[in-house]
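Quick illustration for those who missed Monday's session on complexes.
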Amino acid sequence: MLTRTTIHADGAWRDALSGETREILDPADGLPFAVVAEGGAEDADAAVAAARAAFDSGAWPGTPVAERAALLRRTAGLLVRDREELALLESRDAGKTLAEGRADVDCVADAFRYFADLVLAEGPGRVVDAGSDTVHSVVVHEPVGVCAMITPWNYPLLQASWKIAPALAAGNTFVVKPSEITPLSTVALIALLAEAGLPSGVANLVTGPGHTVGARLAEHPDVDLVSFTGGLTSGVKVAQAAAPGVKKVALELGGKNPNVVFADACRTAEGFDTAVDQALNAAFIHSGQVCSAGSRLIVEESVRERFVAELSRRAARIRLGRGTEDGVECGPLVSLAQLERTEEYVASALAEGAVLRSGGRRPEPSATRPAGGYFHEPTVLDRCHRRMRVIREEVFGPVLTVETFHTEDEAVALANDTEYGLAGAVWTADAARARRVAGRLRHGTVWINDFHPYLPQAEWGGFGKSGVGRELGPSGLAEYRETKHVYQNLAPRPVRWFSG
Ligand code: NAD
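Prediction with nicotinamide-adenine-dinucleotide bound:
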């Protein structure tokens, strides 16, 4: 059993002030494999105090940009050094396959490098023409202050890094609270930041539950910004807790993401194979526990039967098992709660008239699938319609629903018929149609003839209830900054507005 001291405040590792601990379960067998500190509101207070003192001392915000960028680059190097160990940790904690875990580490290292390059490329500010030779006016960017970061369990290391890298590049200090069920890779990242030379008090970590640690961070008067990634219900609570303090709030919430396939994309054998293959990937990678999962297939009626038949055939062949085993293509769900939630959505869809084409239940245990693991078969539900719960709500499991359309307008209306707006895709061989449809989709990321890729240089975030603000790209850095106008009068004289 791994026993980790997981609270980090002011440069020192310690246990929870209450002495409480939590067992971390391996979702592949449901058995505990690690023990971490179960922090509480008092631990959050101590960590915020450390972050506040480190910020107010001015040491990190005042560190030259080149030194901050160098630290981010050293961290990227350490992530690459520890790639296998981190991928294994993520696999055991979150149920990912090792290949997924490695890909996450690579993306995280890229994000650290990207934000290092971005701040280095910036000039000293934007000079404004004040219309006078005796005025020098410049707009500059400064760190926000103490940032609270609250992250989910599906991409623990990646989501934490999309916040930590830009926050540090901009000169902030922070307290991060990872999901209580998958804290281990964030603990490892904080240790790497210390190894890279980050001064004490700049990076702080509290492991523990959302309703205590998370809620305290969101409302804490000494926190200047709260950046949250997680579900809609918790996101609303975080925004409400932060509101009285008028803190800056960034929210990355859920999605119900359409994958629109026009018949013309399937005209050639190669086009058909690619569209089916990517629809499979869109829906089932990481067992569908992806905020941008393409969980709604919206396919042109004329190709529906052929498309769904092939998709279902391939879904049934996905090799489910413990993420660390060779040959396994898909791991378990992260928890029993997530498995039961998936089963509930499948049952409700079937009760509402959906037709099961593949999967739909827990698989039999096998050599790579222990009996206690939280596995669910990749599931394809045909003949779905917009009034079903499974179409409207985020399942966050391996469930793909199928809806159909006859016209382009109908396809766009279906794809936009969601309260979310995180990501979506359109598949077509007609370039003009691709651009037209992409322009009409109300989603923060639109893929044309692809699904899932993202770039650290390009903003990530959602329309509607998928969130507020953006991560990655220049906007991802701007989240962690205040903007200041400095107006310097080089020849001050009385203004004589008042005569007396
Ligand atoms: P969750 O909302 O249950 O938990 C997320 C985090 O919030 C956890 O650390 C949790 O402890 C904390 N939390 C819970 N209640 C809180 C409260 N009242 N105050 C403060 N913190 C609280 O989400 P989850 O189940 O861990 O993650 C899955 C969700 O995350 C899905 O909805 C998914 O779409 C979303 N997500 C979004 C993105 C994105 O980029 N938009 C990325 C990954 C995940």
